[in-house]
Structures are given as C-alpha cells and as structure tokens.
Amino acid sequence: MKNIITLILTFTIAIYANAENLWFSAYSDSAALVADANTIIQQMTEKIQNTNPEIQMPGNVAVKNTTPYLIYIDSATVNLPMWEEVIPPQKKFFQEIAGSENEGKEVFGLFFNGFYIAHELGHSISANAGKKFDNAFDSEYDANIIAILYWRTTEQNEKLEKCYSYAKQMLKTLKNPVPENENTKEYITQHYSKLAADPYQYGYIQFSQFVEIYEDQSLPDFDTFIKNYEK
Q1: What is the DSSP letter of 62?
Q2: Rounded to two decimals, what is the model's pTM?
Q3: What 3-state class would DSSP assign to 18?
C-alpha cells in the first residue's frame, strides 16, 4: 500500500512539473493549455487576495478560444489561443519579427501561451479594485507592470528574460505607430481599435511597454505593489 501511494505521488509530481515546464511555450493540446492556465489563474488569484484582501477577484476562468485578438479577458473569462488555429497573417507576423518560423512559434508561446495570462489578470485586478484610467495606454501599462512583477515571484524568471530578449529584438523591426508631434497616450486611446487590429502597430506598443517596465529599477516587488494598489 505504501509503495502504491508513493507511486501515485511521484506520478502526480511528474505531471505537475511537466505542466510547469510547458507554460511559456506553444501548446498543441488544448486541454493541457486550459488546465495549466487555470492553475496559474488560481495561484495568482490566491496571492493577490492574500496580499490585499480588499481586491475581491472574481472566479476568473480560462477557455480555449482562438481569435484574431489572440488573448483577452472578457468579463471573468480569459480567452486563450492555440498556435495551430492562428490565422496565417498573424503567423506570418510572428515569423517576420522573430526571424524564422520556429522562432515565430517560440515568441507566440512565450507571450500568448505564457506572459499575457498574468497581463489579463492584471486587467481583472484594476477592474475589481475600481481603478479608472484616463487612457488606453495607462491601462495596458498597468497590466504589464502587474504581469512582470508577478512572474518575478515565480520560477519563470528565465522565461521572462527570454521574453525581454525577444521584445528587444522585435522592436528593431517594428515601427512606432504614433506620428511625430502627437501625444502618445491620446493618440493610442483615440485610435485603439485600429491599432489593436494591426499586429505590427499594436506589437510595437506592447513590446515597447514590456521593455521599459522590465528595465525599470524603481518598481517595487509584486507584494508591495499589490498591497499599495489604489483606485
């Protein structure tokens, strides 16, 4: 009996470790993608509420739903994409900015089956804390801060660093969509739908925010940020 229990525990640990290793990579199994995402959502939610009980998080849940938006949160549902189902123009985008087909798939996995789940939970935090933003730029920036600080509390620092390296590389190709002499925050807010529909333009916005936040040495740790999170 003791040997059976040990075997079950070993098998369970092996499955969990494998799931942890899969995250930040392009999934081929939708059930595994959703299961792992929901584990991360639960872990992050518990950490948020233990740190700041005033933020009452809803029962966020992940589903597989590949759309041109790739990953987004709708109410309490985090919609996740599968690489095999991504439309050809978007696959081409990833391949072009990353340098090759394999690297394009790797970038997709790092960000869209990886980093951005915490970003979407960041939007859930601000919504449920009642925080208001004057513009779309600040809303995205806030979610990116939360995501970067959160992943630094996990065992995924190596993957986070890889995201940073790719983001720096891709920004050499992508161009700033905001015209000269325009106010960046106002322009992005006024043209948000159009920019979000173009991966080359929206990619610049998101990846440039990622790099700036990642390099910002003045930011506190995740617990301090959440503990002092204000409306």
Answers
A1: E
A2: 0.89
A3: helix
